[in-house]
Amino acid sequence: MTSNTTTHGWTHTGQRRPPFAVEPGPGQESVWDYPRPPALLPDARRVQVWLGSVCVVDTVRALRVLETAHPPTFYLPLADVNAQALRPAAGSSWCEWKGQAQYWTVQAGGVSLQRIGWSYPQPLPAFQALRDHVAFYAGTTPDTLRCTVDGQTAQPQPGGFYGGWVTPDVVGPFKGEAGTMGW
User: Which of 110, 147, 156, 162 has the maximum number of C-beta atoms within 10 A of its C-beta?
Assistant: First the structure.
């Protein structure tokens, strides 16, 4: 199925999604319409990140990374993060598109989550806009981060490794689900 729809700044230009992809409804995006290499777009919706009852991020200046088969990953300006809640964490990783990642621990309200966030202090040229932004893994229990987009709670991308946020406006299936390791 092809389409030419625009949602949250992303325009699908007619790429053919696979037959197993869920057909998006009104106001939805299919992750199978996202490009590879990924796109980076601003998102003016209100994004909040909570650890228990403590709001550690509140912004309307998010950036979304959109990559084929992945729900969007939200990168939030460090200027909009409660600086007292963020601590550098050990380790790093490499992304072929974005470069060397640094990890972050989030602490608030007596809870500390190790390596729950990451950033790219010196991103590769195509992703320079990610400098001074941080992303977080969404959580689903009270002792994890609750991430919201315009009040809708995001679910974590399946698979544990990936950092996309599944919200009602995106449809899959998503990389990380059972049987997707070959994608």
Answer: 147
